[in-house]
Amino acid sequence: MSTADPHCIFCKIVAGQIPARKAYEDDEIIAFHDINPWAPVHILLVPKPHIVSMVEVLPEHQPILGKMMVLVPQLMRELGVTDGYRQVINTGRDGGQEVMHLHMHAMGGPRPWARG
Length: 116
Ligand code: 5GP
Ligand code: ZN
Description:
Elements: H1 9-14, E1 22-25, E2 29-33, E3 41-47, H2 62-78, E4 85-88, E5 104-108
Antiparallel strand pairs: 1-2, 2-3, 3-5, 4-5
The protein binds guanosine-5'-monophosphate and zinc ion.
The site of guanosine-5'-monophosphate has 14 residues, from strand 2.
């Protein structure tokens, strides 16, 4: 299993070294509100191990990725999103990934949105 990267901003959030407005946490996953939201509700779901991107995903990551997918409707409901949402995973430079620690965006709330 991957370990933490001391230079990674999301590993620092996982470790509690940088504050974040948390929406969910368990031993494998953390979810927190995006610092620069595109939508009224915009959270990031992050596996705690430092997996760089979907390119680095291994068969052993299947349960954690499945858990992230299943968590989204629950978290959107808890955050008051009632009319649909959008999930995005940016992968690599050409995929628009800026933070090189795998994460899934989940965005919802009434349109218009700032982006997306
Ligand atoms: P990406 O482009 O890599 O898919 O998305 C990275 C996201 O992380 C961006 O939407 C950006 O606003 C968010 N982000 C970057 N740094 C921080 C941070 O320190 N705290 C929080 N809460 N979000 C961050
Ligand atoms: Zn990391």
